[in-house]
Design a protein that fits this description.
191 residues, 26% helix, globular, alpha/beta, 3-stranded mixed beta sheet, 24% strand
């Protein structure tokens, strides 16, 4: 439908999303961003042998610099934002194990380096509550992006994260409309 040939996999963790794309038959370019050291090492192993999949040990945000990443026991819960009490109480794997200072760049700064002028780009964001900052650092780049896939919460999991009802109007002002919505409960995620 969208004829995507480049996927920007932001919040790649160990490469689960990119691997699922490959299993589903996607053969285009994947550019993954993962700032956490251990998760990035796993991502590199996952991407090994795939010349169209590259990874960067880098976070995206609304300004260039450094931020402190809270590394959770289960690394997919790692975030720049602290977790809310209900999440911490419901799953011990969400507890912060350590913290790392990580580099952050805007997509607008990086965009020219990837030669995507003729590409059909999907921007996938799974960044544990940091999606708004990434979009604000990508305002010029978004003019060239075909679609955005976001993971958003209906209940506040991270302190200060925007909820879906805040993100939809922002996406509209950036020129995007809701195409599809998949809902998962915490029980479904455990299966």
């Amino acid at each position: 439908l969208l004829r995507i040939d480049t996927v920007l996999d932001v919040g790649a963790n160990s490469g689960q999303y990119a691997m699922s794309l490959r299993r589903g038959g996607y053969q285009g370019r994947i550019i993954s961003f993962e700032p956490g050291r251990e998760a990035f090492e796993a991502l590199q192993k996952s991407a090994r042998g795939d010349p169209l999949w590259i990874g960067h040990k880098l976070a995206l945000g609304d300004q260039d610099g450094e931020l402190v990443l809270h590394i959770a026991e289960a690394s997919e819960f790692s975030s720049f934002l602290p977790l809310t009490e209900w999440v911490l109480e419901s799953d011990p794997n969400t507890q912060t194990r350590t913290e790392e200072r990580v580099p952050v760049a805007t997509l607008d700064m990086l965009w020219p380096t990837y030669n995507m002028a003729q590409s059909r780009v999907l921007l996938k964001l799974d960044t544990q509550g940091f999606e708004r900052q990434i979009l604000l650092g990508a305002v010029r780049s978004l003019e060239h992006i075909t679609g955005i896939q976001l993971e958003l919460s209906l209940r506040t999991a991270y302190v200060g994260q925007p909820m879906i009802e805040e993100m939809l109007p922002l996406l509209r002002t950036l020129g995007f409309e809701l195409f599809a919505c998949l809902l998962y409960t915490s029980d479904a995620a455990d299966e």
